[in-house]
What does this fold into?
Amino acid sequence: MEGLVRYGTAGAVATLTLARPGKLNAFTRPMLKELREAIDRAEADDTLRVLVLTGEGRAFSAGQDLNHMPETSAGVGVILEEDYAPVVTRLMRHRLVTVAAINGPAAGAAANIALACDIAVAAESASLMQAFVRIGLIPDAGGTWLLPRLVGLRNAMALALTGDAIPAREAQAMGMVYRVFPDAAFAAEVEALAQRLAAHSPVACRLIKESLRDSLGNDLTTQLALEARLQSEAAGSDAFREAVARFLAKGR
Ligand code: T3D
It folds into this structure.
């Protein structure tokens, strides 16, 4: 471990912090390996409910470190398959609720790793940039799959073809970000959100994630059947029984 991704926990919340602040947390292969390992460590810890991904210093991450590009074009594909794809798929299928806390610029693959989290929140001064076209590449790390689904084809095309840096408020209006918090309050707001999410039923959260993710490939009939199956499972949970009992005990 080179300490390129810091791992911390507070109660049921794990925080993974990209920690190359002198390089705007730009990704290298060792750092992506550490990120994968940290994501897996959180997955394996039964005491956890929420995973927060953020960056140290003034950036979330500048994406791939351009000083550490592979020497051959074929090598680019290898890094995408071996390093980036496992991060994206692990985040999207994670047992925990995943939150990208975008504290500053998120460029290239870093923007798309943030979008792969279940929820993204941003500091007022943060921005998201599909930087790829600026260096003659296409969006990767799941960007071509995620963007049309999150912001629609029209906006996805504009984001990818311009490579514009989109300020947090505009990213929120487009659907890339759920909430924008003032910079000074960002850390506290992220902590409060994470703890609030951690208090929810883990069964419900797991089934919500499964149902919404699976909906992207389902027709309505299939999805209605899935809802019925997953809701039956949710209704069998202690969390459901206890919440209904508490509600009824209030005498409503
Ligand atoms: O297989 C593969 O490897 C392919 C995978 C590709 C995935 C990708 O992510 S491709 C996209 C790579 N990322 C970029 O192209 C983003 C480049 N950076 C920027 O656009 C900007 O730096 C930011 C928007 C991130 C931040 O802008 P700003 O104005 O706040 O900072 P800056 O002044 O541009 O950068 C500060 C320093 O960081 C600067 O170095 P210096 O002059 O202080 O020595 C800059 O060169 C360096 N830096 C920024 N981004 C990167 C970087 N160094 C290496 N790699 C970077 N990606």
